[in-house]
Description:
4-stranded antiparallel β-sheet, 45% helix, alpha+beta
Amino acid sequence: MELATITLENTVQNQEVSRQIRDFHKKKGQPLAIRFSEELTHIILEAPCLYVPDLEQLTQNIVIEGHLRKCSTHSEVHPRGKGKTVNLHLDSELVSELEQIRSHVNSKTQQEVIRELFIRGMRSYLAEQDEQKENASPLSKSSDA
């Protein structure tokens, strides 16, 4: 699981800010890991989503690893690599095509496999549309005669 991270200098002010962040996480019931660098010069806060009650309290010498979102009452830091979840309901033919693609090409990523699935699906759909047009055209011509 990827984590969002905030790294602060180990100062008295930043220790207080870290406590406030810790308390805010406890209040929300969210996990938070606090650790120190090996030399004890930095405080490192890690969580699946970091909740910061007051972003203004953070000093200039911080490193934020993740995407920062400002909410009305607080700010959130989400991991960079976190993608979007999409729920797809696929018919059995598309699922079998996906499995065929996956079995033939194990070295491709999930995105590449899904992109290829959609391309195949669109080609199949367009081929069906062309067939319908071809089948409809001779019927309409013969009815004209």
